[in-house]
Each structure stands twice: as C-alpha cells, then as structure tokens.
Amino acid sequence: MKLLNIILAFFGLHKKPEVAKENEKQTPSRAPGNEPVDPDIKSQVAEEPEKYPSELVNPISTQLINNSMESYVLLREPDRSKQTLGTFTITKNNAVTFTCKTIELPWKNNERKVSCIPDGVYRTIRHRSQSYGECFWVQDVPGRSEILIHHGNYAASINPKTGTPDTKGCILPGEKHADVNADGVPDVTSSVNTMKKLREILPDAFELVVRTKNV
Q1: Residue 204 sits in a domain of what CATH number?
Q2: Residue 138 burial (CB < 10 Å; 0-12/13-18/19+)?
Q3: 154-174 tens-digit pLDDT
Q4: 86 Cβ contact list (under 8 Å, min separation 6)
Q5: Could you give the number of structural domains in the chain?
Q6: 21-45 burial string, b = 16+ CB within 10 Å, else e?
Q7: Cross-strand partners of 102
Q8: Would 204 be classed as within a structural domain?
Q9: Range of the domain at 80
Q10: For residue 5, what pLDDT band results from cuts at 50, 70 and 90?
C-alpha cells in the first residue's frame, strides 16, 4: 500500500483532502448587494431622509406634490434697517409659476410686534382670521405667535386710514414695491388682489422657506 501511494504521489495523482470545498460550503459566495446587513445599521439606513439635488434643497426647500417638485421661497433683501423688502416665488419642476413682492417689519432681534421673523423653514397652513379673512398662518416661529401672510400695504409707513402700520410681524404680499403714500418709503401695491391670487394657487399646507439674499 505504501508503494502504491508513493507511485501515485510521484505522478501527482494522490487524492488531496477537500478542505477548500468545505470552506466554500461554510462561506458561500454572494452576489453584490446581497451582503448581510446588521439590523441596527439597516434601520438607520431606512430612517435616513430621501436626498434631493443640492440646488433644490439649499437654499430652496422642496415638497413632493402629485409627484412634482414644488418650492415656496421668500427671498429677502439684505438691508433690513427700516423695513424688510422681499420677493415670494413659487417654483414647480424648476420653473417659476408665480412671483410677487413682500414687505415686513425691520429686523430687530425677533422682538414681538416690532421685528420681522428670523430666516428659517416654516410649515404654513391655510387659516381664517377675524381681522383678515382667509389668509395663511406661519407655524412654529421661535418666540412668536400668530404670524400670518395677509393683505396690507405698509410696514415702515403709516396707513393713512388706520394711523398705524399694517403689520406687527406678519408678511404682507403685493404686486410690486412702490411708494404708495408718497412719504419716500417703499410699500407694496395691490395687496388685496395678490392675496386673492395666493388663496387660489397655494395648497392648504406647505413649507415656506424664508432667507436673506447673499450680498
């Protein structure tokens, strides 16, 4: 028997142990993408929010409505010493569908009734006000309450009919910026008609992005 094994070994015919095959059975190969995932890691991946292109998300936030991409952005002018002028724009599928002008109080560290609200992203809902009728309520503003988007023409200026400005922190939309009462300070025009248009085209709830233009 030893002689036979020596002869087989000499000609390379000696049978080797099937160690490799046993190893293959213990660690079967997997196609790419089928590797086992740790349950904790898997749950973390599942909870990670869906990412959109950076040019849409920053600085414009997006919302999926009927499988389309929409954004609602209030872009403010950088000089807010006397009042805050801005432009409100609705974008759908990267195309502007509506735009109007806005006016707010100046920036005074978010003080109640004398300052505009901070830049940020705010959930906004349709609302009925006793004073302004159907308007939109900007939710969860830090340190503030009842911030609305409603009709009005004057922020730094005095409304000649009431003797006061038209806002104590709310956002007033209009067709364009113009000096309505000839006091040298810009106001917004056609605010009532602009609000009517907004009530027609805005959803009942949306995400409002408020930011200041880079100088």
Answers
A1: 2.40.440
A2: buried
A3: 999 999 999 999 999 999 999
A4: 74, 75, 76, 77, 101, 102, 103, 104
A5: 1
A6: eeeeeeeeeeeeeeeeeeeeeeeee
A7: 86, 173
A8: yes
A9: 60-212
A10: low
